[in-house]
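Note to self: keep these together.
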Amino acid sequence: MPLDRFVLILVIVLAAGAVTVWLGWLLMAAVAIPDYGWLIFVPVALVAVVAARVVIDRIRNKDDNHYDRIEK
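Structure:
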């Protein structure tokens, strides 16, 4: 495995761990402190925006019809 691919995987794993800890902290803060309950909507909104963009891109992309050419 090339060194650059190994470093990329390592960075992605560390970033995913950091995001997991951050989301856990956010969830615990929303549960423990009622004033911070609105903070849980920030990651939910981010995930919803990304998911909507992916779905819209998949629907509008005319070149992405790989499965339409497969014989049944």
